[in-house]
Amino acid sequence: MKRTLTAAVAAATLIAAANASAQTLRFAHVDPDDWTTSKKGAAGQVFKNLVEAETDLTVEVYPAGALGGETELIEGAQDGTISIAMVSGAYANFCPAVAVTDIPYTFPSAPVAWQVMDGEFGTALAEHCLQQTGLRTLAYGETGFRHFTNSVRPINSPEDMQGLKFRVQTIPLYLEMVSALGGEPQGIAWGEVPTALATGVVDGQENPISVIYGNNFYEFQDYLTLDRHVYGVDHLLINDEIFQSLSEEEQAAVKRAAVVAGTTGRAIQQFNSAEGITKLEAEGMEITQPTAEQMEAFRAAAQPPVQAYLTEELGDDAEWIERLSSAVEEASARF
């Protein structure tokens, strides 16, 4: 009798813990919490406020890498210790097809990118990744367009990049891209970038405007080229088992809040990018906006080698390269 009672108490405890867990969603990202400067920070706060206003769910937001880097956040979401993770490039390590969105000079503008990611292509990619990872894509945000800066000369064409050393993320696609453009890619850890720029270990780097300004790179870099070589996508992911454990009403509220959160993140990123260009110019950076003809030269140099590299790397998933290209072409016709 005692053993039966003990087992019953243990079972009741587990059920209570599971129910309590289902009432709390842990939302994690690596950006600062300040919504005025952080797209993920803004998204997290909006998501929390909307979900808690419309349901009895509680949302705990863990910003600034409090629960780990992006790889750790994705792994945590997969094992359920984190409910929701908002991540960018690292997701390609878990769902390789995601890497196609980083093909250089694919998206001509942010509105085109939004149309593509919020349309049939993004929906299909989300379903594909759900099957591979167990993570449901609730919505897309953005880390924004990436641009080159350097301390040597203005860059108007791939020829201007010849001989210049650029810090890039230690991701093969980025190494391939910079090499194809004529630069010398250097894989340097993020924490070492300011020192590398200040001491001349590298001549330049590439990042979104908000990152360039927010990290005071204008102190080491004289030239900014608005070439928009890669559009960074944010993925707002939820553990699918946790999602399925919610009621239909809660699921609907979570999906609505996620879409608003992703849209808010995009808006914050766009605002800070536009304002950041003005601020960088005020700090003395010389800003170059390539013409359409010059942009085509960048695309022609970088895109084919990267596509060839991805075709080999992705295997059967290489079909996503053409699917993305077709989606971009269709969306571009509207703008």
From TrEMBL:
InterPro entries named in the record: DctP_fam, TRAP_DctP, TRAP_DctP_sf
Signal sequence range: 1-22
GO cellular component: outer membrane-bounded periplasmic space
Keywords: Signal, Transport
GO biological process, one term: transmembrane transport
Similarity comment text for this entry: Belongs to the bacterial solute-binding protein 7 family.
Protein name from the UniProt record: C4-dicarboxylate ABC transporter substrate-binding protein
Annotated source species: Halomonas campaniensis
Lineage of the organism: Bacteria, Pseudomonadati, Pseudomonadota, Gammaproteobacteria, Oceanospirillales
